[in-house]
Write a structure and sequence with these properties.
The structure is a single chain. With about 260 residues, the protein is an alpha/beta fold. The protein folds into two domains: about 5-165, 3-Layer(aba) Sandwich (Rossmann fold), CATH 3.40.50; about 185-255, Orthogonal Bundle (Arc Repressor Mutant, subunit A). It contains nine helices and ten strands. Strands 2-1-3-4-5 form a five-stranded mixed beta sheet, with helices on both faces. Helix 4 (about 100-110) crosses helix 6 (about 150-165) and helix 8 (about 205-215) packs across helix 9 (about 225-235). The chain starts with a strand and ends in a 10-residue tail after the last strand.
């Protein structure tokens, strides 16, 4: 059977590729390489600029070396499915996670007119974490047996939900404890970043790592997003930095005082 396994995350896609190499799954894996729960979704060029703004390092990172359109992977996927049809397109999505909630609907939007058999492998939480990457390859692969088909009608309904998500002004999308999508401001977790800063200098990478470690396991915060919020707090004068901010390992931070001097990004 010819399967194509679709994920938002390259890390999740790598786990599926490993399962394929171990002959636990068949086919190929394809990653869109995006965090659909964060940032604008209405325009691929604007979204790409948003993605690039998340990182301090501007080369060799997830989105910095790609082309100018954040939606290019979707366009390439559509072309691939036309040129090389598959028996099944398997969408892998963690249940109750904001990124994957949006990703599933985003996939149905982009593939709405593609004649392909789509099934959904919905990944349940493990150890309290709603994330595919928390699974080992051996734990992940058997979940294919629980995958359910998505009819044309179901896909169309999910695609319409995606359009409603796109039009909402909230730029941060997270699921609540009932799995319902919530729309938040990008600043919603700034207090968590501030809470990890002190009146003494502390490495930026340490602050970012601590926020990641204590973030909600249903909607885990990634280093790129936290970096962008730390940068916002520096620019707005709430946090001070002691060196130019070219990498999260290059500077330290502390809670700002009126006399603090910050460096331009």
């Amino acid at each position: 059977m010819s399967d194509l396994h679709l994920t938002a995350s390259p890390t999740a896609s790598a786990a599926l590729s490993s399962a394929i190499k171990k002959q636990l799954l068949t086919g190929d894996a394809y990653a869109i390489n995006d965090i659909p729960g964060t940032g604008p979704l209405h325009d691929g060029l604007i979204r790409k600029e948003f993605q690039r703004s998340l990182h301090y390092e501007k080369k060799g990172t997830n989105w910095s070396d790609d082309g100018p359109d954040a939606f290019a992977p979707w366009i390439q996927l559509k072309a691939r499915l036309v040129d090389k049809p598959v028996d099944r397109l398997v969408i892998w999505a963690a249940s109750g996670n904001g990124d994957d909630y949006v990703f599933l609907r985003m996939a149905c939007h982009w593939l709405e007119n593609i004649p392909v058999n789509v099934i959904l492998a919905e990944v349940p939480p493990i150890h309290g974490h709603h994330s595919i990457i928390m699974y080992s390859t051996e734990q992940l692969a058997p979940l294919i047996e629980q995958a359910i088909p998505l009819t044309t009608t179901a896909r169309a309904a999910l695609a319409r939900e995606y359009q409603a998500i796109v039009s909402h002004p909230g730029q941060l999308r997270e699921c609540d404890e009932n799995g319902v999508l919530q729309f938040l401001d990008l600043s919603a977790h700034d207090h968590e970043v501030l809470a990890r800063c002190t009146n003494r200098w502390k490495s930026a990478v340490s602050v970012i790592g601590q926020v990641m470690g204590f973030s909600n396991p249903r909607n885990s915060l990634g280093d790129a997003f936290i970096s962008s919020r730390l940068e916002h707090l520096i620019i707005t004068g709430q946090v001070a930095a002691d060196a130019p901010r070219t990498s999260i390992r290059d500077f330290r931070v502390k809670l700002a005082q009126k006399t603090s001097v910050t460096f331009s990004h």
